[in-house]
Design goal:
about 130 residues, 2,3-Dihydroxybiphenyl 1,2-Dioxygenase, domain 1, 2 domains, four-stranded mixed beta sheet, about 25% helix, about 40% strand, globular, Glyas_Bleomycin-R_OHBP_Dase, Glyoxalase, Glyas_Fos-R_dOase_dom
Amino acid sequence: MKVQIWANLGVKDVARTEAFYTKLGFEQTPGQKSEELTSFLFGNDGFMIHFFKEESLKNGMKGELADLSKGNEVIFSISAETEEEVNDWAVKVKDAGGHVFSPPEAFQGMYGCAFADPDGHKFNILKWK
């Protein structure tokens, strides 16, 4: 059995989300774009994250979405090959309109930083030592 997994996240402004991830250099998922949705491929295996307009995702989930101002839903991790790459990510995220809430630093045998996109979805960039 072939299984594919992807993530669905809610956003307030699909166009803003599309601009943010495009500025970071992610590839849009072919055929996955509308007024209610933008989608991007992450990593070498093409993990998809669909970003749905919040109301559309709430309808599909039959319930409320997490309030990211009060807590976390998940943090996605992206690998980096060098510490310089981690540092570059932090600059790109700020320039694209994201929030670097944990600046580049060494910790627990890694070097990394963490950021939130304009809707508060969290990612970290990690280089294993």
